[in-house]
Amino acid sequence: MTMMTPSPLEQQEDEEMLVPHQELSTADAAQPMEVVAQTEPTNTAESQAPEDPQTSRFTWTIENFTRVSGKKHYSDVFVVGGFKWRVLIFPKGNNVDHLSMYLDVADSGNLPYGWSRYAQFSLAIVNQIHQKYTARKDTQHQFNARESDWGFTSFMPLSELYDPSRGYLVNDTVVVEAEVAVRKMIDYWTYDSKKETGYVGLKNQGATCYMNSLLQTLYHIPYFRKAVYHMPTTENDMPSGSIPLALQSLFYKLQYSDNSVATKELTKSFGWDTYDSFMQHDVQELNRVLCEKLEDKMKGTVVEGTIEQLFEGHHINYIECINVDYKSNRKESFYDLQLDVKGCRDVYASFDKYVEVERLEGDNKYQAEQHGLQDARKGVLFLDFPPVLQLQLKRFEYDYMRDTMVKINDRYEFPLQLDLDKDDGKYLTPDADRSIRNLYTLHSVLVHSGGVHGGHYYAFIRPTLSDQWYKFDDERVTKEDTKKALEEQYGGEEELPQVNPGFNNTPFKFTKYSNAYMLVYIRESDKEKIMCNVDEKDIAEHLRIRLKKEQEEKEHKKKEKAEAHLYTIIKVARDEDLKEQIGKNIYFDLVDHEKVRNFRIQKQLPFNSFKEEVAKEYGIPVQSQRFWLWAKRQNHTYRPNRPLAPHEEAQSVGQLREVSNKAHNAELKLFLEVELGLDLRPIRPPEKSKEDILLFFKLYNPEKEELRFVGRLFVKALGKPSDILTKLNEMAGFSPNEEIELYEEIKFEPNVMCEHIDKKLSFRSSQVWEKKILVFRYKLLSGL
Q1: MATH domain spans which residues (predicted)?
Q2: pTM for this model (two decimals)
Q3: Which residue has the higher pLDDT, 213 or 21?
Q4: Which residues are catalytic?
């Protein structure tokens, strides 16, 4: 959820600092404090409020107020909703020239790890002369171990509080009131949406909750879902490049998955990058663009025209002259209607305003063809309404006085049943088809919680149009009642019931920042057609196969992850891998370990048993296998460092991995040395002494500018490169006397560096210790 800061005007109206209390030093007090406007609970599991709140008012009378000692002062403990609370004040201000006041969790130090509780509350300093001037401020907060108190650092100026004529300090007594409403929470850490409701949610990519609420609404229009399933796609299509396939995949998973579904493939098919997923887009625009793209993709298919059949209605824009016989009509189609919220008490009032007649007269007369300027009536009437009526509520408007966008949180009611034939069809044109009954039932309510600069979106939906509503809030789906879906989304102000009336009976009110911004109605006469059955027969076979395979792979990976601690991944590199990679993917270094054969082996399995598995895989007898451990060198390359000793091969795979792997990950990297006899069959590896050095050779052909792996040799430390020139020529396919030069790879960052090797010096003198060597053709060396 995106946190919001108030607009400049909102800050002027409510300038207190709404923060956890902080005991600031004098130096700290000179620094500006961070202001956090907490108008909506954060979108965490704990912040959901499925039950009605328990409310209580606490009155704290502080006598001898001016003689209160100490920087801060606590009230007695009071209990609301089974939780202990108290009020905390700073009589001289928390390093500000205002009274500072907070609501505090009284027993926060004794609560279990991870505790959390959510409360709406108001704090007040009662005016004992004129109650109507009582200073009261309200907010809401998710209390936890890090923020166990919350309130107002700048509650009211100290100059007003301590002025006896103002009525707040009378007979050296101050009266504090706290009204607290606590909502009980569901434990969502163990909550299973599919098990509890039969439905699953959609994962939020960062700021895609607005898209999730729209997608859930469209998915739960079965006729729309069936049409999406019947759009032609092929097994060669990729979801990330095809909106129809991505939407089919998403809908299939929503229908058959047990867990929340990701939307990344769909957003990629939109052409969005990661940044776009963290930007809130306009819901109405997204709805239109998505429907237009689907409409285009449906052309020429069995589902052509589905979007129009479901969502398209028509209205007539007319201008009718009053004094002459002239009328101008223009027919327009719509997929959704934008209805005014400001100045309208409900949906019917918005429709009244929509078809309101405007008089064109005076300086605003209408220029009628052949009749000149004429007084006229201008308006809109509906020719027909669609089976699925989408109403966009204009909750966001531009305020010209404030020169900014604002959110309209006014109360706005919408009915469970909407009759657009009321008052003899006053919204319809005279030639509209009156045989169609325009009686609609509410299917879904899309909600925005927050302010103009950000917030959170979720949806209340009746998937079967029964009395049971469900709240689709990203990954989480919960059962809700009609009151939650309708009345609590009207907006306006909420007044919590008074449980313990005290000194001041002023009701506890707060602005509701969560309210409906889009409504979806389904026409009663089309209900059976639209709320049709959708099953696997409607899903293309290639899609079922693809998605079932994806699900199986997902379950397999999930199982592997759960059992990962029982297994070790052994990555085995062979000469064949070096030949395959060097000169193609690898130039400096020997091999990319991510592209070699992996074995997933139980940790307790003896390494010698693993060798038997290798024998089956490659046809290499156990006695012909010699495994080397890889070592990472200072230049960030890997070399086979030493062969495994017999006692190491007798250990378990897990023990060997722990000994050899300093990074302590689940991998064991090995090089398999296999020697071939004259018949090219594997033979037992030769004995290796301390004087033997294993060298790897690459050949660079400057004429073709090619690099390739030619093989490896054991050499004696006291031997010289000149001793193996004939053998190297044989490995390279050259004549025995071909002149070649030898170079050693040193480093490749920041630039590749190779050092020339003196063929007359011994390998030990050249400090070539089990390192690989580049082989160059000498005759063309000068052209490098």
Answers
A1: 55-180
A2: 0.59
A3: 213
A4: 209, 456
